[in-house]
Prior knowledge:
A: alpha+beta, B: elongated
Amino acid sequence: MLSPTFPLSxxxxxxxxxIESVDWAALSExxxxxxxxxxxxxxxxxxxxxxxxxxxxxxxxxxxRMTVALRRxxxxxxxxxxx
Amino acid sequence: MTPAPLVALVGxxxxxxxxxxxxxxxxxxxxxNYPGVTVERHAGRSELPxxxxxxxxxxxxxxxxxxxxxxxxxxxxVVLGELAGERRPDALIVVVDAGNLDNHLRFVxxxxxxxxxxxxxxxMVDLATxxxxxxDPEKLASxxxxxxxxxxxxRRRGLDELRAALHEALRRGPRAVPAASxxxxxxxxxxxxxxxxxxxxxxxxxTRRLGNxxxxxALHPVSGSALLLVMLFVIFQAVFAWSEAPIGWIExxxxxxxxGAAAVLPNGxxxxxxxxxxIAGVGGVVVFLPQILILFAxxxxxxxxxxxxxxxxxxxxxxxxxxxxxxxxxxLLSSFACAIPGMMATRSIDDEKDRLTTILIAPLxxxxxxxxxxxxxxxxxxxxxxxxxxxxxxxLVLFALYxxxxxxxxxxxxxxxxxxxxxxxxxxxxxxxxYQWPHARDLLLGLWQRAxxxxxxxxSIILVTTIVLWALLTFPQAPEGQNQVEYSAAxxxxxxxxxxxxxxxxxRDIALALLPAMAARxxxxxxxxxxxxxxxxxxxxxxxxxxxxxxxxxxxxTALAFLAWFVFAPQCISTIAxxxxxxxxxxxxxxxxxxxxxxxxxxxxxxYWIATAAGL
Lengths: 83, 616
């Protein structure tokens, strides 16, 4: 792979990026559906709003024009290229 | 005469749909239930420009026509005309958030394929402008091929234009649609939506979003949790402090009503039924209304401002460790006032197992009905000793009782999620709405609707149960010289209960009190008072004597066991009935009653045995 992609869950707070690919197979049917409904798709702009430095806990990120909360396991399936 | 046209409001969650519905209908709303499902149906009336009435239906917010929760299924079925007992709408008003067109237009495109007459309400244009977005509604309308009306629902802007557009759409009737367009998948719809949105946006200035900055504090594990704790503290303080006066008014009002009825009605069964049964029983529930209203006012405020989702976000980590999701936080918070609205609030949880678990543990949150029981027992048995600056032993015990309920709920959730409600972790995926100022009119309307729902549900159930309990305590009639309570059916049942509860230190009076406590928990104290008052005819009534009576007749281990019992206590009959409604059957309420009884028994038993062994 040429582009340095990494999971959405590892974007630093306030860091922006673009979704490069989504590992749909790693997600359950309802999870994949909800992600699509949130507008997650290749090429969409994302920005990390909040991520706790320590431990698990959900993350909050902007997808396009909306802010959503996701658990890390789900956010791990979304691969982004940092802007 | 043809019925008024039915127009449904549909849209994504957080599009401001309900605010628009409120603005269009005012207070002319009817809240009911869709047949067969526990989803609230909000209907109301509005008028077209020519004065003709239209019936408006506020459908649950959803992202697509592919439903995930019961709420979303209702929206899909109504829109497709497949919900039994509900006619298909004649037209749709699709509400979109002007600040999030990329996402909301996707649903518009999906609905457009249905061919129903349709108007797009471009809502919250003021917020979009605030965020630096300049939109061209006409461009949007021509790209969509649908009428678009800019609105600001909370400021009542654009309503006349919306009614005019609706009138026109209804007049034109159904649109022709290509047969295949309905099957377009989410992804291609989303791409189309994005390109239409891009075309409709004239300019975009990057503004620093104040909300984002606040989120860095509100979502932070340390500062966010501190903020949440402070808010919860203020809410609980208000729930108990502000409700004192209105509770007093209701109590004296009910007492006056009882006396009035007693004076008017002839002595006898009928008088006893009305005064002791109906007025006392229903009054016992209505007394909680002030606390419930105050708690609801706060919950509505937090929801409308957009903060509630942030609270759920913060709580998700903790909830996940018990196998629940952050969404369970709101129902559980409501349950501190009363488990009935708490259980009703679980409807927003889409995962069935998750929702069921939340319903099953909701009664473990100490509801306000248990407070009078706690206060009187603590007052009688726990010495008023200071344990430190500002911390009294009595307060500490009360706090411990609340904490025991919360811890018990978490342990119960953990166990349930690994046994009877086993299933994959449901996850936590939520849209976080923008912060906004709540609107007083919408808050008041919501408060009114929730209060009415509570009174209707709790009131009707409690009415029946109090009548049954009154009958159990009144019949058969004791012959002259015998104690009525002892002689009654309830007294005889208590004899049976006593055998079971004797090992955990409960005496006969407690056994007798447990029965009416099923109607409403706080009645337990009054019931014990009644028993003692009847037995000791020379003693005077009133709380002071109940306290003395308790001190004289109960040992400390018994009192502690009684408190432990009430932490896990079998919930009141109204709660059980609502659990049946929400789970569509008797299976889960029966399980809930069973496991809570077992838990209460073990907790009370352990408390009694340990306290006795410790020589208390």
